[in-house]
Amino acid sequence: PKLTQKTIDRLKLRWSIELPLIPTMSFQTLITGSHNRFAHAASMAVVENPGVMYNPILIWGPMGCGKSHFIHSMSYGLSSTIGQKNIFVTNGIKFSVGVNIAIREGFIDDVASLIENSKVIIIDDVHLMLINNENKDFISKVINTCMQSNKQVVFSSLFSPKDLEYIESMLGVDISQGWMVDIKYPNPQTYRVILDQILSNMDIKLSEDYIKKFFISRSMDFRTVTVLLSRVKKLEKYILALKPDLLHQDLIEMLL
Question: Is the pLDDT of residue 1 over 60?
Fold first, then answer.
């Protein structure tokens, strides 16, 4: 069954249950190294043969190490092979809250159809899923049905498989039955390459001394880096018109 336009409009207006993809996060821009090489190989295998080998797959690691980049890269890769309409991409918060809203407002069957018609289910930040008595039966059924029907299921998590046992217990889902690959923080050389890529993509210009002092000496995770630099770009629109001689590092100091 197809979703009615009314339901699609309601989903978009009330709550976006699907995760919008970020164009700059693709395999083409993903920098690999010893910290993520196995995760990269497993992710490419999923894109080339979804539902065959690494299923379900859990990618886990500390904040800002690149998990979401993998999620978006896999989504773009799969969309080019099986079509975007066959992929359901969400995250723990969007999915669990969206299910609650759909149940309360009476269009949960349409959400079920949306997922049922998909060949790949991707849930970023599964550890943030807000499980309660209202949504747990639906979420449990959806994930278990996808696994049993050999649909490709992809999870990412900040926590290790062992630390996700509480979610498995609440949902009756065995995430650990599939493949679990971890991503670590990159070594200093790779860290610098990734940092330079972020700075270049965001058109942020900083002195070498400032980069070393502020970012490298702290080994700042890439999520924090991206959030901070995004705020710099927003501030730049308002401040530079008044004070054009300010540098990007001046804007960082202002934000802090």
Answer: no
